Amino acid sequence: MTEEELMLQQLFDEDKLTDKQKKIIVAAIETFSEKGYAASSTSEIAKKAGVAEGTIFRHYKTKKELLVSIVAPLMTKFIAPLVVKDFNKVLDREFETVEEFLRATIENRRDLLLRMLPVVKIMFQEIPFQPELREQFFDLVAKNIFNSVEKVIIGYQEKGLLVDMPPESIARLTITNILSFLFSRYVLLPHLDWDDELEIERTIQFIMHGIGKKE
Amino acid sequence: MTEEELMLQQLFDEDKLTDKQKKIIVAAIETFSEKGYAASSTSEIAKKAGVAEGTIFRHYKTKKELLVSIVAPLMTKFIAPLVVKDFNKVLDREFETVEEFLRATIENRRDLLLRMLPVVKIMFQEIPFQPELREQFFDLVAKNIFNSVEKVIIGYQEKGLLVDMPPESIARLTITNILSFLFSRYVLLPHLDWDDELEIERTIQFIMHGIGKKE
DNA sequence: AATTAAAGTGAGTAATCACTCATTTTGAAA
DNA sequence: TTTCAAAATGAGTGATTACTCACTTTAATT
After folding, report:
1. Which of A27, B4, B79, B130 could connect to A49 by a Cys-Cys bridge, CB 3.0–4.6 Å?
2. Neighbour count for residue A195 (Cβ, 10 Å)
3. Does residue B5 have a pLDDT over 50?
């Protein structure tokens, strides 16, 4: 909760929000994530935030605008850098093998992703129902992020470390694999006994021997 | 729609439902899948089904009971056989390689899965919010299905065709890979230009070279 | 201290929600 | 044809919904 607030501060402080406005956002994220957008009432969010219900509608014209104003900046400001960050290090040949790169990338981002999980959950829950979010997700992920990921893939392909499958397919398979692990681990079956480090290593091994060219 | 109705007939005819009861189920599936459970109103479902709203509550005590009575039998009667069906053929060594088996399995089930997509969508949408469904899913998938899948995996491992990773990890990685493809293809980014057969083949190749032992 | 615009309030609104129930319709057995 | 239980109805229920608005509080500037 304290680290979550740091994340939110980092994200929203440029807009210089008041204390109550921040509380509304925190309460909305918590409620949307727990019960889903449609099942969350504005009165409940107001109560949890400790503000009057009218205060929410002073800053957001509609309930949907509250949802979008939470998820949209996360997509544009946070998720893209999260995925693409430090990719220049790869291009500078800081990692000799794809395996090393994958391990470093996943380890670096895991904690952050866990803290983001409530919002990520909201994002994927609502993308099928909110065309506005779906469009934004498509513009961001399918175009920008995939382009950056593909550059890295092509770099490794030129080094002969990856199979000759088209970069967009390799990107899809690699990214969905990591997301599938996180989804299984933290959303679908969180109560199972997981050996996190071990399963991450197995996931990397699986990805690698799927896309690693055999000598 | 016609094939969907066949599926539903096959699923529910043993209960000898009336015409209106079937229409309620079809309308509920359509509405839940399009708007999500919480955003779907019983009045809308009744209207779409061409029945009075009271008729719904004659057969289902609550709205949630309607949801559960749709998803639960699908999980127990349909999804388990869908995954496990014909596994004896594998154990009878009808498929020499894992690759052949995977291809046959995916091809056989793809059409059926597509027709089931609305209900599968509802299932995964609501599992995070409905403890009743989550428990049932856990009992079914984590215990029954995984056991069957693991048997097949162990069989191939004994033939020396799979790596020595623990069967439950291989099962997780293989199943989530297939589901990830279907989710990307039909839920998340359905408007992209997909070459289905080609991407299926790439997915199989990816899975195989991830779990296939190198000679 | 006075001014003022923004922030915050909470009672109020019409609409919609899931659900009830007294009544009518249906369809198959007697 | 009569009977009758199950099926179906739809007007009606109180609760809750997203949202409004006239008003009060806050806080920074003059």
Report:
1. A27
2. 9
3. no
pLDDT of B23: 94
Instruction: Report the residue of B35, B134, B209 to disrupt the A interface, i.e. the one with the largest count of A CBs within 10 Å.
Output: B209
CB within 8 Å: A177 and B181: no
**pTM for the full model?**
0.87
Distance of CA B200 to the CA centre of its chain: 17
The per-residue b/e assignment along B3-29, b for 16 or more CB within 10 angstroms, e otherwise, is ebeebbeebbeeeebeebbbbbbbbbb
A35 chain-B contacts, CB cut-off 8 A: 38, 129
Nearest-neighbour CA in chain A from B40: distance (Å)? 9
Considering only the beta carbons, identify the residue of A142, A180, A214 that sits closest to B180. A180
Placement of tokens 């991407």 in the chain: B199
pLDDT digits (tens, 9 = 90+) for A144-195: 888 888 888 888 888 888 888 888 888 888 888 888 888 888 877 788 889 9
Residues 6+ apart with CB under 8 A from A150: A167, A168, A171
Q: Which are the contacts of B123, defined by CB distance < 8 A and separation ≥ 6?
A: B71, B74, B75, B133, B137
Q: Please report the pLDDT score of residue B175 as a whole number.
A: 86
Q: Could you tell me the end-to-end alpha-carbon distance of chain A, in angstroms, rounded to an integer?
A: 48
Q: What is the pLDDT at residue B215? A: 39
Out of A33-37, A143-147, B33-37, which region has the weakest mean confidence (pLDDT)?
A143-147
Q: Is the model more confident about A154 or about B3?
A: A154
Closest CB to B38 among A38, A127, A142:
A38
Query: Side chain identity at A117, as an amino acid letter?
Result: L
Looking at residue B45, its amino acid is I
Write down the mean pLDDT value for chain B. 83
Name the residue in chain A with its Cα closest to that of B204. A210
Instruction: At B209, give phi and psi (nearest 5°).
Output: -75, -5
Is B39 at the interface with chain A, CB within 8 A?
yes
